[in-house]
Design brief:
Blueprint (H helix, E strand, L loop, with lengths): L6 H17 L1 E6 L3 E3 L5 E3 L2 H12 L1 E4 L6 E4 L16 E4 L5 E5 L38 E7 L1 E4 L6 H6 L1 H17 L4 H21 L9 H5 L13 H4 L1 E6 L2
Antiparallel strand pairs: 1-10, 2-3, 4-9, 5-8, 6-7, 7-8
Length: 248
Amino acid sequence: MQMKDNISPELERIKGELERLNKATIRVGIQCGNGKNADGKTQNTPADILTIAGVHEFGATIKAKKVSNLAIPIAKKAIGKSPRDFEGLFFIRSKAGYLYGCIDPKRRGKQKASGRPKTMKPQNKKPQNGKSEMNDRDEDIEYLFILFPSVDIPERSFIRAGYDANKNTLEAACRKALEGILFSGWDAWKAANHIGTTAVGCIQMYLNTPSNFKPKGIITRATTNWPNSPLIESARLRNSITYIIEGI
């Protein structure tokens, strides 16, 4: 009686897939080009997100270029705009030395914004909020911008820190990938995709948790729809976290 060997082919399959998986590199984060999201679907990363991600991950000092100051919005109507977008905008310097860009219906058309506001040297103390130094009698004045020569963006690592905070989850994902190859007929590609989608989900969850990061500043909180989530505004950064598989 001739016995059919069903074990050796399966062992060869397992060996081959494990070797393929061992050669794989799974890159997770903000990709330069196409990557796969938490659902395993391919998507493209907008170019500007790479810059935004780098600033948050490592921190940065942003300095004014071609102008004396950066105009930081302190009102929602000023988000995404510059002082030149507001007719009749004028500048007020506070007692502490801070420079504000304002508009007033009564002054519209009488005084226009200067293209290069003077560089101010404020005192060491910081404004407590957007209106703390404003005159109570100027009730009609709308304060739209505060101007600074530079702005420090604090480091809020979400990729490196997200990985460190989820090592146990990622180890479990790798273990399941191996078990899938051993017992469920998975190939190396499916195993690697399982690890990749798990890693993306972990980092997105970490980014979604406000307590993981230094809170937003008072000025930033006043102009955002997500005051308690330092890295969430439009969800573009969160949704741009993807993975790519190389070597298989």
